[in-house]
Amino acid sequence: MPTPLSDILAEKRIVVCVGSGGVGKTSTAAAVAIEGARRGRKTLVLTIDPAKRLASSLGLENLGHEVQQVPAARLDALGERAPGGELWAMMLDQKRAFDEVVERYASNPEAIARILANPVYAQISGALAGSQEYAAIAKLQEFDAAGTYDLIVVDTPPTSHALDFLDAPQKLTAAIDSPAIEWFRKWRGRESKRSGWNLVGKTGSYMFKRIAKFVGTRFLDDLAVFFTEFDDILGGFRERADASFKLLRQANVGFILVSSPEPLSVDEALFFHERLVGSAMPFAAFIVNKVHADLPIAAAGPHVLSERAAALPTIEALGLPHDELEQAIEALADAHAGMQQLARADQQSIDRLREAGGPMAQVIQVPLFSRDIHDVTVLGELGSYLFGRAQFARAAS
Asked: Where are the beta strands (DSSP E) in the chain?
């Protein structure tokens, strides 16, 4: 039997929600975090999703790099809450998270100031591919080490960037140990930036003169200063990267793959599942949002339906001609048949997830809601499907 999501939530301390864009990943992360708080756990939901939808869903005016508590009254509105349950939320500020790693590992306040003011560092910390994901993992490690929260729920960017979330530690370690950075380390400790360039030899000097025509000597000087100063903290970054690699593979971590039934979304979920399995990372469950329900009308054609409808006093009171009434009911029957086709296509997609996950994989279906998930009340309704208080309706096979 697959492990229910409620049991998974009780066993895990870190839950990472991943999926493609537009599948309800942020809402799912919020609903999981709310459930954790309702079960008496001090819970933090951490988002690195640039869509910034989490704040409005939780009823917060804004969400930033500082942790904020969701008012207890909002949780209490969803029903009984176990003692000690709290919900906190924050949205990662990539630049600030990177700065915090520098501040932790730099040798002295003067070195911190020089690194943070260096324009090369500003570009790397704010725009380098994977830097957001590395910063997120660094923040996750910080929260995990502090032990302040019983449960941490991480809402990642869409799948392509979520893969960076997995790869960021290894990529950073490879970059730290690259020959290019090692080359810059030769000038560590020299008082003059330019004295370092004078020691590269004729070939190196010629090369840098050519490069300087395009980027300017100021940039090359900034680059040299950056690597000289940054050398003090590269070991700290490597340490964090190695720890991240281990953290994401711990037994108290679980990855929830969020998808819609759309074939492309399922393809991405299957690809990510393969990556998780191949990387020995703990897969927890598939969650499929926006599923069409297959609820066939009892064996009755449009004409039978129209006869029944015509017999209803409320319909007769409208005074509609019989032919118009029948046309309307036939149109409704056609629309319903179309919804059934969508529902069956959805189940075919979901069967692909079941097959990939195996008999022990939890696959949870959440119906297509008639309204947007934009507040705590609807998040609570979503949580009812995730944790078995409400059942997805589908036709008996």
From this structure: 14-19, 42-47, 68-69, 86-91, 151-155, 253-259, 283-291, 362-367
Domain span at 243: 5-290
257 φ/ψ angles, rounded to the nearest 5 degrees: -95, 115
Q: What is the pLDDT of residues 133-156, one digit of tens each?
A: 667 787 888 899 999 999 999 988
**Domain assignment present for 230:** yes
For residue 329, what are the CA distances in angstroms to 155, 178, 303, 332, 344? 44, 70, 8, 5, 23
Interval 343-383: pLDDT, tens: 999 999 999 999 999 988 999 999 998 887 778 888 999 99
Q: For residue 391, is it within any domain? A: no
Query: Of 162, 364, 358, nearest to 259 (Cα)?
Result: 364
The answer to whether residue 333 sits within a structural domain is: no
Interacting residues of 255 by C-beta distance below 8 A, sequence separation 6+: 15, 16, 18, 276, 281, 282, 283, 284
Query: How many Cα atoms within 13 Å fall on the side-chain side of residue 17?
Result: 27
Domain contains 299? no
Instruction: Give the Cα separation of 215 and 153 in Å (integer).
Output: 43
Q: What is the CATH number of the domain that holds 218?
A: 3.40.50.300
> Per the structure, how many domains does the chain have?
1
